[in-house]
Every structure is written in C-alpha cells, then in structure tokens.
Amino acid sequence: MNDIVTIKGLKYGLQLTFDKGASFDDVQANLLDKLQSGDGFFIRGTTVFVPKGYFAEEQNEALRRMFHRHGMLFSTELKRPNLAPPSRDTEKKFAPKAREHAEDVQKMTVINHTVRGGQEVRVNSSVLICGNVNPGAQVIAGGSIDIRGTCRGFVHAGAFGDKTAWVVADRLMPVQIRIADLVARAPDEPESVDKAERAMVKDNMIIFEPVAR
Questions:
Q1: For residue 123, pLDDT beyond 80
Q2: 58 φ, ψ to 5°?
Q3: How does DSSP assign 158-191, residue by residue?
Q4: Using CA atoms, how far apart are residues 176 and 189, in angstroms rounded to an integer?
Q5: Domains of the chain, CATH where assigned
Q6: Among 44, 48, 71, 42, CA closest to 60
Q7: pLDDT tens digits for range 33-58
C-alpha cells in the first residue's frame, strides 16, 4: 500500500496524487496510516491539495474531516498564497466583491459556541465568536474577526480584500492567518498571556500587537 499515495512537497503545502488502480477506501486507509504513523510530511497547519474532480464531493468531505482532525487544511484548489503586494489585477479582482458586500461587511455575526476541528464558519460580515477556534477549524469573514477565547485554527479576515480588517483573540495562536491577500503565522507563544492580541495590516505586512479588551 506504500505506493497508493504519492506526496509532493510544495512551498505552500502538499500535493497528493494516487495510484490509478486504488479505490477510495484504499486511499483513505493509506492516508490514515501515514497520519497515525507520524509521517514527517504531515505537519499541523499544512494545507493538503487533492486534484479537483478526482473524488466525489462526499469523498472529499471525508478526507477534509480526516485531515482537520489532525490539524491540517484540505483543498482541491491548487493556489499559491500571494505574499507580495497586490498587483493591479488583484485589486481589480477584489474591488467588485468588496463593493458588492460592503453593507454585509459592516454587520456583525455572533457565534455563541466554540468552533471545533473540522467545522467552518464562513460569513460575509464581521464575526464575533464567544468561544475557542480549535485546531482544524476555519473562520472566514468578509470583515474582522473577534474571538473571545483561544484561536488555534485557520482564520481569514477581510476575505473580499479589505486590508483594514483585523483579527483579535484572547490568545492568538492560529496555524495560519490571512487578512485580504496577505498571509502570516502567529508566533509560537503570544507576547503576553495576560492580554489579548490583535493581528492587523501595517506597511503591507501582518503584524501582531497586544491590546486591552
């Protein structure tokens, strides 16, 4: 079964390809074996890419849940994160979406529970989460993200390109954080365990700073 799944390391994640004669059950069993064996490729916070259209949607969902349980992200869209300043083409791409959802971004959605691994919160507005964001969970918002708890998942604020959006949490330790098209990872430990931290864009970079609630 060792050759059922081929892993190719990318600068921005892992790309998986599969033996043509392998069934989905064989692929899933082989991946689970690699995950449980502590395979050096599978590091928490890594994005795992599977070819789009290779599996049925319910099979993709089963893989997504499996990887999320191990603190990883799953995608069928092989796209490299854009860490450079946005180009004119990028600005043109975001601008219509930003205008379309301008009123939504000004609103606030409230989530009164912890977002657990494998769960996703996706809103056009800003979002207030009264609970934790656990490893393997995803929060994607058109506006800002306020977490009244510990954030150890994946968070994306300003998803339509708003670089004035921010992310704040009582303990901000996400596996990956995005604001508009910028990407960063929080320090392993916050500067102060007694203060909340906020991530925001300054000089076209995501910075982290302590804030008072």
A1: yes
A2: -70, -30
A3: STTS-TT--EEEEEE--SEEEETTEEE---SS-S
A4: 14
A5: 5-75 (no CATH), 88-211 (2.160.20.70)
A6: 48
A7: 888 876 556 766 677 888 888 999 99
As given in the structure block, the two tokens for residue 30 are: 């082989």
Helix boundaries (H) for the chain:
24-36, 57-69, 88-100, 102-105
Cα dist from 119 to 12, 43, 90, whole Å: 22, 19, 29
pLDDT at 193: 57
pLDDT at site 86: 41
How many angstroms separate the CA atoms of 149 and 172, rounded? 9
pTM of the model: 0.55
Kindly list the distances between the CA atom of residue 89 and the CA atoms of 20, 100, 166, in Å, as whole numbers in the listed order.
Answer: 38, 18, 23
Taking the C-alpha atoms of residue 10 and residue 130, their distance in angstroms, rounded to an integer, is 35
Bridge partner list, 126: 108
The residue type at 152: R
Q: What is the mean pLDDT of residues 185-190?
A: 59
